[in-house]
Amino acid sequence: MKILVTGGLGFIGSHTVVELQAQGYDVVVVDNLSNSTLEVLQGIEAISGIKPAFENVDLRDKSAIQRFFSAYTDIKGVIHFAASKAVGESIENPLLYYENNLSSLIYLLQQLQEKSEVSFIFSSSCTVYGQAEYMPITENAPIQEAFSPYGNTKQIGEEIIRDVAKVSGINAILLRYFNPIGAHESNMIGELPIGIPQNLVPFITQTAMGIRQQLSVFGNDYDTVDGTCVRDYIHVVDLAQAHVVALKRLLEGANEDKVEVYNVGTGKGSSVLEVINAFEKVSQQKLPYQIVARREGDITEAFANTDKVYEKLGWKASKTLEESLLSAWIWENKIRSK
Ligand code: UD1
Question: What does the alpha-carbon distance between residue 302 and residue 30 come to, in Å, rounded to a whole number?
């Protein structure tokens, strides 16, 4: 069965392609290489033995998308990752984010609503909850005003999909990710941040590698176990597998609603200092860090209630924080040894 993965050469996309292939799906990757490279295709092939079909299409180009769907008429499911994801950049250049993340979604849905039936998985984010009142966060927690244009594109994206699903043959699952980290156990694919990483784990691994002088811990005066922010760090392969089970549910018509939403996290919160300690333990490296002021826009804590995703999809995360951090470290070593 043919499945389109947009942004399929990105961090989460590439791991999902591999998991889809392992389940026998015929994957077509669309990516504009804005935040990825063609080498990732080789990494995917090295793992699965199958080179997925690849089309260099920019989803902001409406006619290019039309051409794509004229050539690939038998697509039954779409996993839509292609989007920009840097929070700071989105604040500096909001239109770039609204255009890239929303026009691409709209053009894609325009093509899909022509089909009598299609399954659609959307990369959403726990950022839609803002600072939720209760932990762990359930899918019923209220959506809060987005802090950044990036976050807003996820909220608006969810709404667009809900509206379109009502009047078309599109069935959708919105996956709200917590904090994806780690790399594939084969060490053939992993995260490839461009420039200075904004996210915690790639910053940690680059610091341990000596590329960054020291890690800045953004604030230790939060109301948490040790004063640093708490997040739910999920291994990217676990997250990738959640996409496959979600897609399968839609393809089999097992969904109860036209649009369903699931949290994808481990259910366990870890503070920044706990992450640092766990990293030091698994990597046997001393990590230089200093406590600095809070980062604007950071919430105190976010970790998932995973009851719904387990009950309905039968999915739960299998990897521990230590395993995830170790895989990120092994990957960092590999990319620096090139
Ligand atoms: C961020 C985004 C979120 C987005 C996600 C994508 C913000 C406010 N949120 O999540 O919307 O979906 O990335 O991957 O930007 N930290 C440090 N030092 C660092 C980097 C991070 O102390 O150098 C801390 C942060 O304060 C935070 C934790 O580490 O408590 C995780 O940060 P990060 O990896 O950037 O993820 P989020 O902020 O949770």
Answer: 32
Dihedral sign from CA coordinates of 8, 13, 15, 18: negative
> Fold for domain 2-180+233-264?
Rossmann fold (3.40.50)
- 150 catalytic residue (yes or no): yes
Q: Is 217 in the pocket of ligand 1 (CB under 6 A)?
A: yes
What are the beta bridge partners of residue 46?
none
Report the predicted TM-score, pTM, of the whole model to 2 decimal places: 0.97
Say which CATH superfamily domain 200-230+267-336 falls into.
UDP-galactose 4-epimerase, domain 1 (3.90.25.10)
Q: Whose CA is nearest to atom 35 of ligand 1?
A: 199
pLDDT at position 337: 85
pLDDT tens digits, residue range 174-193? Answer: 999 999 999 999 999 999 99
| Mutational test site, ligand 1, from 177, 200, 223, max ligand atoms within 8 Å of CB | 200
Query: What does residue 3 show for φ and ψ, rounded to 5 degrees?
Result: -125, 130
Distance 228 CA to ligand 1 centre (A): 12
Q: Where are the domains of the chain?
A: 2-180+233-264, 200-230+267-336
The model's pLDDT over 212-260, given as tens digits with 9 standing for 90+, comes to 999 999 999 999 999 999 999 999 999 999 999 999 999 999 999 999 9
Establish whether residue 198 lines the binding site of ligand 1, counting it when its CB lies within 6 angstroms of any ligand atom: yes
